[in-house]
Task: structure prediction
Amino acid sequence: MTPPATFTGSRPVREPFVGYIRVSTYYEDKISPDIQRAAIAAWAERNNKRIIEWVEDLDQTGRNFKRKIMSALKRVEDKEARGIAVWRYSRFGRSRHGNAMNLARLEHAGGRLESATEAADTRTAFGRLQQGMAFKFAEFESDRIGEQWQETRENRLGRGLPATGGQRWGYTWNRRRLDDDGILHPELYRPDERLGLVVTDLYERVADGEPMNSACLWLGRQGHLGTRGKPWKQTGLTRYLDSGFGAGFVRTHPEDCDCPPADPEEPSHRAAKCTRRIWLPGAQEPIVTEEVWEAFQRRRKEAASKPRSQTPAYALSWLVRCARCGGACSIGGSSTRGAGGVLIRKNGYVFRCSEHKDSGTCDGVYVRRTVAETAVVERLAEWADEIEAQAAAIPQHAATGEPDGTAADRAKQLLQARLAEIETELDRQTSLVGRGIIPEDSYTRERDRLQGEQLAVTQQIAELDEHQEDGQNVDRAALVPVMRGLVERWEITPVATRRNMLRELIRGVWAYPQSTGPKSKTTETYAVPVPVWEPEPEPIGRRADQAAPAEA
Result:
């Protein structure tokens, strides 16, 4: 007999949770992702929960929160999930600062952190005590592991070995091992006969005044790859040569240095931001002579002593991308001969592919700065016209009384409104001085004040944008005043302000090389600005013979 529907119980709605899996970088703490996934899935089945997404951080430390777990936290804040489920609380994190901050953020959003193998009802005082103790033990394990690694580093440095071990370019690495006869063979670095001359040549080139990027390009043309089988880049080559390993040294950071401690949420050691270094005698046989090493160091000190501007001098610096490889393009100069053979230098004349410049692994692209900037200004005007036309075609409906977005959205709307007011005031001041109503010096003071506020507002908008997903929920209509202001006052707007405004509007400017299509039609090098509401274009191929030009 089938019971009446009145007496048939219905299963309660299953709460949505995000399943989070983290595998540690420490070998004793590596727990298989499959084990963690199975335990979380079993917990969800027992407790009538459902896992709507699996987020995995494989081979990631728990000492900071620069991990994918932040996307799981975002889903809870967006009310898409009720909480986060982990295998053990230690998978959430091992940082006392990060745990406290992000757990408070999770609870503030109304979410919960649940452990599949540690039964603790965090809705009760005793459950919260259990959870806190589990986090304390996780923090203790993290500190203990850190102390062990520190002892290991000190031991290795005392034996003349690099603190982190691993391969070193120009040397053959023989690991420490126990052979079949029970004989222990120590860890050794032996010079590689084939690469030894190349290492010496590199040091001599730089010591003689050759720029580091030129030496890196020479390496790429010779076909030499790094220890990971990838082409050299200028930053990596600089770091390798400065380490002095090829000269028989191991470089380290002095423990008694008075530099500030590292940020608890930063994965890097405090030495990463400190310029103080010491070189200790290494156990490896030097490849480079002492005279060459000293000449190299003198050259590096001379290069470091030259004043260098840290502020980009051009509005599109590091915003231009190579369409072949998708990498960044750096600014470069050019020169020509004028009347009488006078050399005329053109600083900031062209953007060029960094991969092509540093390693020669991409055929690259060269695009004039004026071409890229003109393309940006023209596209900004076109986007503004298109957005306004679309807005005019949409019927206006009465307000529905729904919430006006998140607090970040409302803050951004206020900032954008203030930015539009500043644009209007700049136009008014320009009109007043043009008609002779106010003197030039009054106009200059007011213009500088408004541009200073304009820069501050654009920086605040850029900071808000960093916390939002790229291309998600972009209010295009709110960007129109920014576009109009840039187009109308491109030349007189300070570079820093232009850069902050462009970061809000575009993902970048993709530079496409010259190509030849059907009927021998030649397409000159051109630039394509990509707005934040569109995805990045796919690379067309590092080599010219890999890419067939697209013709309409």
